[in-house]
ABC-type transporter, periplasmic subunit family 3 (Thermoanaerobacterium xylanolyticum), 345 residues
Amino acid sequence: MKKILSFLFILLFIISISGCGKEQKSTAVNKIETVRVAFDDSPSESGIILADKLGFFAKQGIKIEYVKFNSGADELSAMASNQVDVSRGIINAGLFNAWNSGIDIKLVADGGHNIPGKGYFQIALKKGLGQKVKDFKDLKGLRIAIASTGSINELFVQKALEKGGLTDKDITFVVVDSFPDMLTAVANGSADAAMEIEPLITKGVEENILEWWKDPDEYIKGEEISVLMYSPNFSKNKDLGNRFMIAYLQGVRAYNDAFITGNKDQDKIIRILTKYTFVNTPETFKKMKPPGLDPNGHVLKQGVLNDLNWYMSKGMVKKAPDVNKFVDDSYVENALKVLGPYKSP
């Protein structure tokens, strides 16, 4: 009898422990955590937008709080001071210098790259200039609009100049703070070309302001244009960072299914993106060259190294950070264990 009672006591104890464990797991899943995301309403934000609006973040217990910034410098400052948790931004000299000063921002996933033959970020010429500017050496003497110096905007142009044996002494940079205003600058004669982004190139072509030029794969192949970044504090919360990445890649995959590898649910995806990006007409989304967003999430590490080397050669970055620590693949690798590699529809 004592043996039976002892067995029952042990059995009840195990059941109670098991029940507690399930309750704790359920509580963790049901807990909603807010993640503050820097946001600029460009098509490159599609992964975050779709992960949010299709409910992938909600399934991971995440609520997104969007925070808009007037400039990339303000956004980087907010990331460095943990005012925002996640950002999708360009790789510039300031980012490397922030890391060198001890600010532990992590580059965790691809945030936008050019698809070979369909570059969404490239040099576009004023309508009619293509007859004169046929090769890289023909860029000499042009006034080229860029959004900022010391960033990928300048880097792309410089690489094109190098292909023609030119330097920045052979052209004039016209700094225009916003990409939409570059169309105005070219239209009114203030610039001859622009380091422009889609769908504004398509818009400029349709309005007889711009014409397409060389594909960027000819002058800066394999470039990482923008990256998904975690702030110093956010990167310390491994569980939340992992859950964010799983949802983000699901959003990126929905985007790829609709535009890159097929047209799955394309009308539905376009309805969402025309509401939450500055591309507000479905026809434009179907005509434009889409941003490349890696459905497996990997940062193009060689592209980051190329950027670093260029910024150092120009004296914009004095010390080389350890890119293997700067780029943190662990969140993407964890997400791929959960989701598996991407398969096109």
